[in-house]
Structure formats: C-alpha cells, structure tokens
Records
---
Amino acid sequence: MSTAKRCRIEKENEMVEWRDEWRPKKRYHSYVLSYEDLQAYPCWYLDSVHCIPPWTPLFAWSWTHHQRYGDLWAAETMGFPTCKGTDWREVDGCGYMSPILVTDKTEQKERAVRFKEHLKPFIEDYDSVWSGVVRELMAKYQEFKAFDVAYAPNSALYDHFDSVFRFNNRVWGLHSWIMYTLSGLYALFEDICKERIGIDDTSPVWHKMIRGFDNKNLEVDRLLWNLYKHAVELGVDGVIKNNPLDEIIPALMETKKGDRWLNGENGFQGFLNEHGWRMPRMMEFNCKAWIEDPSPAFSFIRQYIDKSGQFEMDIRRKEIVNERKEAEQEILSRFPDSQREWIKRLMGVAQKAGIFSEGHNYYFEHMSHSLMRRAGLACVKRMVDKGLVEDPEDFVFLLPDEIRKNIIPLCLDYRPLISERKAYYNEYYQILNRPILIGKLADDHGRAMEYMAATKDDVMMKITVGVEAVASVDFKADLYGNPGAPGIGQGTVRIISSEEDIPNIKSGDILVATTTYSSWTPVFPLLEGVILDSGASLSHAAIVGREYNIPVVIQTKNATKKLKNGQKVRVDGSRGAVWVLSE
C-alpha cells in the first residue's frame, strides 16, 4: 500500500488521545491546537526553525493566522499537485504545521495542469516576477512608514493598524507563492541530478554550484562593514568601541568627525532610515527594530573592529564564483548535449532558490514585522496614557481584535488581562523540550517523514523541517548531522540560545544553536563554523555558511545539549561531522 493511501486510512479511522505534553495550557484564539485537530491530521510537526524560543501571544496569533493563510492561499493559487498547503496551530507559543495531502488522483492531475502553467514565468524570467513582487511590497511599506503614528487621530490609527496587520496576509501569500515555487523547482533539479548523475544537495559539487551569489541581507552586511571602515578612517572607532551602546550617538555628536560619520553622505543615520527596519529576531514583535534602537548594529560594528581587515566575503569571493562556474560545468557535462539547455535553465532557477531563501527576509519578515510592531506599539501607548495598560511593550500580550476594540473608546482596563497573559507566557517560555511530533504518527518518526515526503512539500523538506541525518560510524565523530556548507573549521564552542547572546560571539568561535536567523548574519565573518540542532539545505545558516565559506553542520538534533561553551571542536561541513578536541 502506498504511503499516501496508508496515511489517508489512518487519518480517517484512527483516534488519538491527548497527552500531557501535547495539550495547550490555555486556549486564547481559534488556532490553538484542539482535540479535533489531533483527529483531522496524521501528524503535527514542530517548526523549530522559527519558534524556538517560544513566541509571545501576539506573534503566535499572527503566525498561525497570516503564515497559515499565505501557505494555503499560495498552494491553491498555483495548483500545487500533491499538497493543499500547510495548516498551522499553536501550542504554548510554538508553531506546529501539518501539510495537507491531496489523495485524489483526478484532483492531482487537474492541479498539475495549473501548476505547470504557473511554473513557466518562473523558469523563463524569474527576475521579472521577483522585481514585481518587490515593487508591490516596497510601495506599501513606504505608505506605512509615512503614516504619523504619534499624532494621528485614534480613528486613523485604528485604520492604519488594521491595514498593516491585514497586509501581512498579502505578505505571507506572496512569500509562500514564491517559496513553494522555487523550493519545488530546487527539489525537481535535485531529483533529476540524483537519478541521472548521482548527486544531491549534500554533495560537495552541489554546495559549490549553489553559492557565489549576493542577496539583500549580505548587501546590508557589507554596508555595516563599510561603516566600520569609515569609522576607522575618521578616527571615531574608539568612540563606538569604548562607550556604552546607548551613549554612542551622543558621544559621536560631540565631534565634527563623529557627526559626519552619523549624518554625512553614506552615514549611519541614512543606513538606519533605509535598512533599519529589521529586528534582532525577525519572527517576533517583542524586540526593537534597529530604527528604534541601533544597539545591535553598533554591536556588530564593534565586533568588526576587533577583527579588522577586509570584508570576509570579499576575500574569497572571486575564488568562490570561479568554483561555482566550474561546478556548473561539471554538472552540465554529465548530461547529454540534447538536455543541457533545459538542465542549465533549471539549474539557474534552483540557484535562485538559495538567493531568495536568504534574501527575502529583508523584504518580507523584517520589514513587515517591524511595521506591525510600530503600529501595535503606537496603539497601546495611547492606552498607557489613559492608565489602561502599564507598559507600551505589553502590546505583545494583546490580540489584534482586543487592540481594535479599545483604540477609539480608550476605556477598557487591560491590565488584568495582560497580567494573566504575561504569567502564561512566562510559564511556557521555560518549557525547553517541546515534542517534535504531535498526533497519530508521533511515535513513528519514519512514517511521519514518509507522510511529509508524500505531500512533496519541499518548503518543509528543504527549509523548516529538513531530513533526518544518518550517522556514519566510519568518521568516529562525537556528533553527526547533515552537510550544510562544505569545509573544515576548528574553534571554540559558543552556544547561542537567543539574539541576546549574539554580542558574546568572538572571532574564531563555532556558533552552536537550535537555529539561526537572518539578523544574525553580520557575525558570520567572525565564525570558524556553525553547528545546528535543526536546519536544511535552504535554511539560513547553510546558505550564509556557503557564501562566507564557513563549514556548517545541520540536523544534529542535540548539539546544544551535548556541547558546552568553551570546548574546542572541529567541524566538517562536507561530511556532517563534529569532533570534540578538548574540554
């Protein structure tokens, strides 16, 4: 019996009871996991890439509403043949996803016809598709930025808040529309290469073929590096390095050179105005955007001052690009002449998947979530002024309808509700070991992975969940995972539990974490390697590691538990292995 058929029968006939570790402690919105959800789907998969540590209530609401909408809308719009998208639920601040398998063969065929038409513009001229999406997003963001949240009437602020939050549906729709498409074409190219020439996305030649491209986040990193160099040239690097983060700007303003670095051509303030709509954790609302508090940017510049020299990526860029071109030719040469033109075109789109997977965060998550934070914060500030809320930052403990309900009358005392939600958040934030799987297939990891594979949801396979690593006894390593980025590195373990730990990173460290975020990218030039509990070939660390020529091992499952700060380790990103050299 096929995997799809077997899982469908399980879905229809089996019942599963609550377990204590599955049951949410509180149901406060409609997409908190329910008993009915357990029966309706074969399995719910933890999205450890995005929800560790757990989200605040408002962001958990946003993710399960907006991301869910985007996934379902995109899959239906494009006619994804085997999957109707991904459904989402929350369990105590964590997101769980379940792909919706299309089991009817007639429906699959009908959807496949639409899907084939959908793919054509992506294959023929992806850049035009992408530039159109960027224009739409940036036009709307500019409109939102221009709105005066401080002095607008309450009714206008209500409309602004409503527009910004509703637009996030469109943001996630476009996000998933492109990501499903590119991830699917990436996987298609990998399947062809695997079947015909025996390589996949863990092969060294694949890693070389997929790298050597810039993206928007790497562009921002380079601008930060240039700001560091300009500070050195003007002799104000000491001001940045030696003052408390919140006193750097006043200290710089005391000198002409400092003011020039801040406000002159290509200065820091201009950088913030354009690129400061990003947060230390892009999947949250509870941390300030750089435009509000530039401390993270100053922290990165400080770390660059300690390292000095040339921008790390530029040191080997030409060599990496040449290696990529050689890898492209090696792969193409192994196909018959009659197939090479088509394979070359498909390879080009697969390469775009890596560029999009990393660079899209700038236009989607960072920008949209920063503006949503700005709108929510502005609304709740007015409630604080009326004594209805203690702290503007408490907006993350309210849901959108609750904010809408109170922004015009400004008469509802939300302090008891916020106190209750805050206690709930503080309780579940301490729950470190979340179940990876929930539901009927929770005790059968192999069949859960088979079900996911049957949906051919390549976003789950290549970005959010990944594939399980198989240990090789030949290496005699202390830790095994999947190859994420090639090479060998050696350094000191630095375990990063959240964005608050990022300033602790020193040159020569090996970053160890559950996952990484695009807002962490500026520290990659300091690293000798990366080891992750989770990850896949198109997840953040793998892409950035390849571009910076840093070895990355993903899917170790428990690196953050087995390794300790200060240990010396060797990382082999080509084989997915880690050795502990000293305690």
---
Amino acid sequence: MKEETVGYCRVLAKARRVFREAAPEELARVAGTPMHGGIVAVARPKPVRAFDPAEAARWAAAARLLPILHGVANPHNLGAIARTAAFLGLPRLVLTDHPAQAGLSDAALRVAEGGFEILDVYRAANLADTLRRLKESHRVLGAAPGRGLTPERIPRDRPIALVFGNEEQGLDAATLAACDEAVTIPGAGAGPGGSGVQSLNVSVAAGILLYMLKPPAESR
C-alpha cells in the first residue's frame, strides 16, 4: 500500500466503509487509465442542472462572471477549464447542448483536480435563445481569435457571460452574432516578425480571459 493512501484508508475504516487493496494492474483496469493516483472509488454522478437565464439574473449581483462552453469536445480541455474556474473562485459553469460538447467523463473529472466538486454545472438548451434572454442581465461576450475587443477594453458595468467555442472551429458566426461583443487575446501574430502561432488552446485562452475579466471579489 502506498504511504500516501494510508490516511484515506484510516478515514474509511473509521467510517466503516469497505475498501480493498489491489495491484496497480487491477486499479488501471477498473479506472480505465493508469493515471489513477493509486485510488479508485465509486461515486454518484455529479448532477448537471438545466440552465435558466432568469435564475442567472438573480445570481448576477454576487457572481459577475459566467463561463459558457459551446462545443468544447476534448474532456481534458473541459477539465482544465473547470479547474481554472474553480481556482479563480467562480461558482458556476454552463455547458451547452452542442453535439460535440464534452460531458463530465472520468477524464474531465480527473483533469479538473477537484474543480467539479466546487462548481455548480448547468446544461443550456437552445443557445441562441439562452443568449438572447441572458442579455437582459449580462453582457454576453464570445471568445474569438484575431477579432473583437481586448479584455481591458470590455466595459465592466454589467455581469459578464463569456462563451467559448469548439477547439477547431471556434464559435460559429450565428453564435458570435448573438453575442454583444467578441473578445480576443492579442498575440504576436502569424505575419512577418510574428510568432507564427495564430491561436491558443481553448483551455489556455479560457484561463487568460477568465482571469482578466473576473472582478476582484468573486463570490457565490
């Protein structure tokens, strides 16, 4: 038994919960990955609630930044964004019904490093209607490489809903049109004298934008 797992086993024994020591090969088989950290547990799935823009309007005064993921397909990116959001103290994360959108898989939960235990997660159906209604209480921003305002130019007079798109295509034209503004992270660019890199990984872009747009005191 790994030394770092002894404390967990003592807690489980005190709570009269069943646990069993297993070989690394068996843990990898049960977990579906060798990246299990030495412990595998069975837990209830985290509930994902239906998103209601009217309810979001009531949150707005206390939680002024709301990330929305629309088609972020890679569970590692989803997990990384959740970890960042939780680290920054954001209380909620919204996933849309985009067919490519990753869900709360084992991989996403593992990469989030506990972030999903802190966040309330919601599912938004019909993004166009959701954004239209959300505009009543929030400034809706769409993340877009190479176009839009830089974060420091975004007015902070209203709560912000920040929409991130698919890793390959980004946000589609209709979704961007439904936003109040596009927001972008300026880079060195691909032209002469530039870095040759045109865009960032969505989880990296999310980390930068969430940090730059988060009010100084974010609370539940």
---
Amino acid sequence: MSLVRLAPRIILLLLVVGFLASPESFDFVFRPLVQANAPAIYNQGDLAALTLLHVRMVFIATLFATIIAVALAILVTRPFGAEFLPLARTVVNIGQTFPPVAVLALAVPAMGFGNGPTLVALFLYALLPIFENTMTALTTVPPNITDAAKGNGMTPIQIFRQIELPLSLPMIVGGIKISTVIGFGTATIGSTVAAKTLGEVIIAGLQSNNLAFILQGALLVAALAILVFDLLSMAERSLMKWKAA
C-alpha cells in the first residue's frame, strides 16, 4: 500500500496515541462542547487504561470465537462431520438471535457483574462471520487442485494442511475482521454491567449530560475499529497475493 493511502491512517493512529498519552492537550478541542464549569476531558478514570482493557476484551473474545468457529467449520466440511452442519449453524447463530443487551441480561444472573457477561456476548456475536467465511472458503477450494494432490499420493490430512487451509486463509481473516469490528462497538455496551471498557466514558457523558465525554468514548472506539479493520485488511490482501502467486 502506498504511503499516500496510508497517510490518513497514520495520522489517525498518531492522534489516538497523542490523545491517550496527554488528554489534557486536547482540552481546547472539546471545551466548546461543555458548560463553563464542566470538565472537557474525561476525568473519572484513565483513558489509556480503559482503551487497553477494551482492546484486550475484544481480542480475547475474538480469539476464542476464532478457535471454536474454525474448528466447527473444519468439522462440518469433512465427510465424517457433514451431518453436524445443522447443529453447528444453530450454535453459531445463537449470538445473532438476541440483541447484545439481552445476552448481557441473561448472562449476569449466572456470572455476575463485570467482564464475564460481556466476553460471552462478544464471543457469541463473533462466531457467525468467522464460521461462515471459513466454511465457504473450505468448500470452494478448486476440485482440480485437491484431485491433483490426491493423484500425487497426498493423504486427506496433508491435503487439508498444505492446500485447503492455506488457500482458505484470506477468507478466514476476512471473517475475523468483520467479527473484530463488530466487537469493538458491542463491547461498549458491556459497561452497563460493570465491564471495564470505553463504554464507561460514554455512560459518564450520558449521566452528566457531557457531550465531550460521549464524543471521546465514541471517537476512540471508532478509531480503534478503523485501525484494526485496516490492519486486518492489509493482512487479507497480503494473503490474497500469496494465494495468487
């Protein structure tokens, strides 16, 4: 990717890092949005710490969702596991059946307040895109390639490890990208059940009628989602070029 195309993202990254390192330096940006005596910069916690906790929560949930979704997709695309496809689809669709708030409401009585219910919600919401992309990728590997591999004496496991999985990686990364971006937005809702995310900043703004707080939380979440989306898009394009080589 050319430097010209990367420039906006580099600027965005520098702005995020600069804001988290010294929020007070941006007071002049948000000051017009608040009343005279109200704070213009979130002061009820450490913005950098909340950002790291937000990223960590999304990363953990997406990691576990990737492991489960990819494993299920591999299972149902093998001859011995094809009969489990309806069950697998039911499992990965659970998260899409209920809105995030409903998942949190169901999880809190069992897990209590904190990060647990939010991790469950993020995990469930991340399953479907990764599963569907992985399954589609594995079932669309050109038959002539796998037939040639069989003709060369490769075993099914070798064909999977050396041909099917590598060729499927770009689409798998595409599913992970979708799930991760969704996760960044969904994680903010977790603060309603005492999860440590950037949702705390937004909720604090809503409670005190402070537009600056709301914008700081929302803009940080949006910036993180954009940066991670671009990073995974670059990985996806690199894998596509490698696949075509």
